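Recap from last week: sequence in, structure out.
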Amino acid sequence: MLRPEDNELLCRTGPGTPMGALFRRFWLPALAPEELPGPDCDPVRLRLLGEDLVAFRDTDGRIGILDERCPHRRASLYFGRNEECGLRCVYHGWKFDVDGNCVEMPNEPPETDYRRKVRMKAYPAAEWGGWIWVYMGPEDRRPPLPEFEWAMLAPEHRWQKKWHLRANYFQGFEGEMDTRHTTLAHLRC
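Predicted C-alpha cells:
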C-alpha cells in the first residue's frame, strides 16, 4: 500500500516535480494523427505533464507543439490561424513556426529584428506507429523514438484507441500491476 506522500510523489508531473522530470525524459504518445488531419488544419488543445499546449500541422505537414499562450499578450493560440507554415495569434498577429520561432510580427516595422528575439516554448513532435509523440525533456537527452513491436507493425495490423484519464501513466500502470484489483474489479465470476 502506498503512503499518502508516495502517492503524492507519483501523482504530480508538472514542471519541477520529480515525476515530471522523469516523464519528460521519454517520448510521450499525445495525439492520434487524425486529430491533426492535414496541413493548416485547426489547432488542437492538449494538456501534458501539467502544461497547457496547442498542437498544429503546418503547411508542409510538420507538427508543432507549442505553449498554448502567445508570449505577447498571453492570448490562446488555440484560436490562432494556422497558415503558411505558422500559427498566427489572433490578438496582434504574431506568427510562430513549429520550433517556436517568431516568423512574423506585423505590428513592428520591417527593418526591426525584434521578432528574432522572441521565442516561445516548443516541443519536438514525431508521427510514429500510429501516434503523434512529444518529447518534453532536455534536448541533449532526447532518446530515439520507442521501438515498441506494435509501433513497427503495418497500420492494418494495429488496433489503437485513445482514452482520456485524469491520471499519469505510472498511476495506471501501478493499478494494472495490482493483480487482486484486476481480478476483483474487472473480471466477473
